[in-house]
Specification:
The strands form 2 sheets. The chain has a 7-stranded antiparallel beta sheet. Strands 7-8-9 form a 3-stranded antiparallel beta sheet, with no helix packed on it. It is elongated. The longest helix has 23 residues, at about 290-310. It has helices at about 1-5, 20-25, 80-85, 95-105, 120-135, 150-160, 175-185, 190-200, 210, 215-225, 260-280, 290-310, 330-340, 350-365, 370-395; strands at about 30-40, 50-55, 60-70, 90-95, 110-115, 140, 165, 225-230, 235, 240-245. With about 400 residues, the chain is α+β, with helices and mostly antiparallel strands.
Length: about 400
């Protein structure tokens, strides 16, 4: 708030429009605005990097970063609100040196792109940011795909420009959001797998290049080759200058294939097949692996079903995996154990086999793309479903 008060003369107390604010405010003639792009961090929320806007007033010697990516983790029910997609993020402001210090300690890189704005446009952008910084305006409903900190920064610049931005158009339009997420997470296979589990068909559909700029690095690349097409017909480069504020000194995450979901689920499939072969030789069904697998399936299904039915996050409600990953397998695991202990025929095994086989056919036919490890995991469930149905059919014959 102190940073806002320092620039208060440029921001009217009652603003009717941006143009009125700019006209009423004293016109600062030494403002420079930059896009700051921060490289991905180690924490989950920082895996995709970050975008902020740096505003420098050389006359008053002010250097402030406006950041749309702030949130209060200690607020009431933060985790629940985040899962529900009802998390309100904040615009905040901090001294540039503090941001540089924080990211320097983390070892993250920060690149800077100085915008090629006129002083009128720079003043207009500052007015917009200061108005957003007011307590009654600074909260917004965060949407990781369609309205995040990068897109907010991009949109504020566009509102300030006297004309339109013609972006570079570097990305292939056939690239899906899931492809882009996989590229960012190639060194984090378990995170990539987890995202594939909870996000559905929506991120496998074609989206325009504007939506693709939800990723900070994509916006940086698009901005780097962009032009401002002004209302008077003039055309100028969007970026006036480029600089590296901090080098990324973090070593890439070490990934070991034998700890990846693909390898571990391949081992599970091997165990499922070997156990079935052993059961056929002994002519006796063994329930322990199935109980464990269906319990795992049901526990994971609690999250998938919760997001599918209750969350406002994009793409979670188009997830075909909810057919297999929901709370029902928890009850089936208990039923399976009961039948095994009591020596009863498990007639539900036929339903389980039909659902599992049917879903694997759906995986081929639907538009959703599935993680390779999920194909292996589902194959394991299919093998065990065959075992259950086989011994149910032959029980008592």
């Amino acid at each position: 708030m102190l940073l806002m008060m320092a620039w208060l003369p440029i921001s009217a107390e009652k603003v009717l429009s941006v143009e009125d604010s700019v006209a009423a405010a004293p016109q600062l003639d030494s403002i420079e605005v930059s896009i700051l792009t921060c490289t991905p961090g180690k924490d989950m929320y920082a895996k995709f990097g970050h975008t902020a806007l740096r505003v420098r007033d050389y006359t008053a010697n002010r250097d402030v970063v406006f950041n749309y990516g702030c949130f209060d983790y200690n607020s009431n029910n933060f985790v629940l609100k985040f899962l529900l997609g009802k998390t309100d993020y904040l615009l905040d402001a901090e001294e540039f040196d503090f941001l540089k210090y924080r990211y320097g300690r983390l070892g993250n890189g920060v690149s800077e792109q100085v915008l090629n704005l006129s002083q009128t446009e720079a003043n207009r952008l500052l007015v917009l940011l200061l108005e957003n910084l007011r307590p009654e305006n600074q909260e917004y409903r965060y949407n990781w795909l369609y309205d995040n900190c990068t897109e907010r920064a991009r949109d504020m610049i566009e509102k300030a420009v006297e004309g339109r931005i013609e972006y570079a158009g570097l990305l292939d339009e056939d690239v899906t959001v899931r492809d882009m997420l996989h590229k960012c997470l190639k060194e984090s296979p378990w995170v990539s797998f987890g995202i594939d589990v909870i996000l559905g068909e929506e991120i496998d559909r074609k989206v325009d290049r504007r939506v693709m700029m939800f990723l900070p690095d994509v916006f940086r690349m698009e901005a780097d080759g962009a032009y401002i097409v002004r209302n008077d017909g003039g055309r100028s480069e969007y970026i006036a200058n480029r600089d590296t504020v901090l080098e990324d000194v973090n070593a890439p995450d070490k990934t070991y294939f034998f700890l990846s979901p693909l390898f571990l689920f391949s081992l599970l499939l091997l165990c499922a097949v070997l156990l079935f072969i052993q059961e056929l030789r002994r002519k006796k069904y063994t329930a322990w692996l199935d109980v464990v697998m269906h319990t795992f399936q049901g526990v994971a299904g609690l999250l998938v079903a919760f997001l599918f039915f209750l969350s406002e996050h994009p793409a979670v409600d188009s997830n075909w995996l909810v057919v297999m990953f929901n709370p029902i397998p928890l009850f089936y695991a208990a039923w399976l154990l009961y039948c095994y202990k009591k020596g009863r025929k498990n007639l539900l095994s036929y339903v389980n086999l039909a659902v599992t086989a049917g879903f694997m056919i759906t995986m081929v036919l639907c538009l959703q793309s599935f993680n390779p490890a999920m194909w292996v995991l589902m194959s394991s469930f299919l093998v065990r479903a065959l075992s259950q149905a086989h011994f149910t059919y032959h029980k008592g014959r």
